[in-house]
Amino acid sequence: MRSILSHIKIKNQYLICLLSVGIVASLCLLTRDFLDHKVVGYLLLVVVSLLAMSLDILPVLLSAVLSALILNFFFIQPYYTFHINSPDDSLLLFLFFMITLVNGVLTHKIRKAEKRLQIKEVRVNTMKLYNALLDSLSHELRTPISAIMGAIDTIQSKTVHISEKNRQQLYLEIEKASLRLNHQVENLLNMSRLESGVVQPKVDWCDLKELIYNVLDHLKEDLHFHKVVVDVDENLPLFKLDYGLTEQIIYNLVFNASQYTPKGAKIEVKIEYNPDVDLEYNPDKSMPCLITIADDGSGFPEEEIDKVFDKFYRLQNSKTGGTGLGLSIVKGFVEAQNGQITLENREEGGSIFTIGFPALVMNTKEISNE
């Protein structure tokens, strides 16, 4: 309520003050014979206090002056005149006016102080977030760069003799570190694209089976100690999706599973087509393309599942490294294609990501038969 009123134009704030004081005064006027004028003063004071919690200072001062004039003119005898017979009533009106003004000004100042404090807290939290991100990035980028430089120095060294086998191993380490470095840079660029709103899917017919195996090939070093199971129907149709965005989605999810599950864990990738859903008649809810990526690791803490897709968020007890961008990029790319993604812990242990796309379908089996 407060945030909404604070954005109202100043002329509308004056109108709100006039209406608020006028309505309360009118209701009190109808019951003037049963209400003491002191009670009316208290009610008008409450109105001004409530207005001061939400509006600018000038409209609040107007409501304070207006309340004092209305109290004098309509509720302090003699009625319908600004003349006051009783010194007690004169003192009461003066105190009412001063208290109303002071209360309105103080409430407004308190509100401004709270706003400044909130801005300061946001800045502090932002600085902490960026410092954590920079620390994480420095680790994530320095590690592959150091590996690349160390391997190159060893290969180029004239004082150290290395066998051909060791040389090939060093080349492999350079390739692995380069891929890791490229992955981090890609994540930063992708997050920048999502933040700027320039992600425009370029949909075309995609062979998801081919896409899955391309991703697994790129991640073969990271998946070396994992058991990967791919479940794809031989007659899986083509889906109209953005190949690049979908590839990045699968890459990030499988990469995350490889990094945060123990050696020997199983990672399952499954693609399903639900032929019972007709896009033409249900364009908003239909998800004929379903992709699930599951593992049998330790899963996610239940209290943190709702936060894992937040930008820069990392699990409380996760291992060092990582930028907290991977899953937020996944969600952004899924939603850019009008899809939905959910995360659940499996009863038998581990977690499962489920992605649904409302994609158009081309049945390749029917085409080949024709």
Automatic annotation (TrEMBL):
Subcellular location field: Membrane
GO cellular component terms given for this protein: plasma membrane
Name of the protein described by the UniProt record: histidine kinase
InterPro entries documented for this protein: HATPase_C_sf, HATPase_dom, His_kinase_dom, HisK_dim/P_dom, HisK_dim/P_sf, Histidine_kinase_KdpD, KdpD_sf, KdpD_TM
Keywords (A to Z) from UniProt: ATP-binding, Kinase, Membrane, Nucleotide-binding, Phosphoprotein, Transferase, Transmembrane, Transmembrane helix, Two-component regulatory system
Major place of residence: membrane
Keyword flag rRNA-binding: no
SUPFAM superfamilies (alphabetical): ATPase domain of HSP90 chaperone/DNA topoisomerase II/histidine kinase (SSF55874), Homodimeric domain of signal transducing histidine kinase (SSF47384)
PANTHER family per the UniProt record, alphabetical: SENSOR PROTEIN KDPD
Organism: Flavobacterium fluvii
Protein's UniProt keywords contain Zinc-finger: no
Example GO molecular function: ATP binding
Histidine kinase domain location: 136-361
Catalytic activity of the protein: ATP + protein L-histidine = ADP + protein N-phospho-L-histidine
Classification via Pfam families: DUF4118 (PF13493), HATPase_c (PF02518), HisKA (PF00512)
Bilayer-spanning residue ranges: 12-30, 42-71, 91-110
